[in-house]
Amino acid sequence: MSTHIHADQEHDIIYPQVLPFLLIHAGCLLATWSGVSWPAVAMCIVLYWLRMFAITAGYHRYFSHRAYSTSRTFQFALAFLAQSSSQKSVLWWAAKHRHHHLYSDTEKDVHSPSQKGFVYSHVSWIFDRQHDATDLTKISDFASYPELMWLHKFELLPAIVTAGLCFLIAGWSGLVVGFFWSTVLLYHATFCINSLAHVHGRKRYVTGDNSRNNWLLALFTMGEGWHNNHHAYQSSAKQGF
């Protein structure tokens, strides 16, 4: 499998958008200055699992696939909590994911490791200019809600609010360990589904793509590692069968 990124893709990376992403990673190292308190560690664990739930139950199963129904109030709460993970707006995320399923592991897929290399599928695609815009026609069912369009416009607000609460509760250690550490862990756990779950694991179903079931990824992603199951039954709210 090639990890090469084509030159036209490489030159199309929006580098200013990469900076905040790198700064959050670098911010994790500030723990040597802030210290690592037990309340901050507890906050890191709680925020990881709470926001992972919002990613899998919100971004993915609800907004991308409409695998279940819920109230408008809980819909907004899911969206707000999911966006606190700093993975762009629910409308952007769901629109890109719907596109991924339409063209999984073909040249039109936005993050196929078999087509564009492992690094690109894991993280680089997010900063590619061609993927920056949100195709609202792909997510018109949710773009009709003003509150979700408001979150789309202020996509970083939930993350900023969460970071502020971490600082208020546990000081600098709360911000660094509670927020930065859990956010970086969430980044790469989520990204591994786009990259590793299309490379390593077992294929239970013939799906026409390279989606795999990976039990280790499932442990860290509340079941999203059962990725081949998902590609076979995309509208299922269940992860494993």
What is the arithmetic mean of pLDDT? 93
Distance between the termini: 30 Å
Number of helices, where a helix is a run of at least 4 consecutive DSSP H or I residues: 13
Largest sheet: none
The low-confidence parts are 1-9
| Strand count | 0
Class of secondary structure makeup: mainly alpha
What's the shape?
Answer: globular
How many domains? The number is: 1
User: How would you name the oligomeric state of the polypeptide chains in this document?
Assistant: single chain
Q: What is the N-to-C succession of helices and strands?
A: HHHHHHHHHHHHH
Instruction: Name the beta content range.
Output: under 5%
**What's the Cα radius of gyration?**
18 Å
Percent helix: 55-70%
In short:
The protein is built from 13 helices and no strands. By secondary structure, it is mainly α.
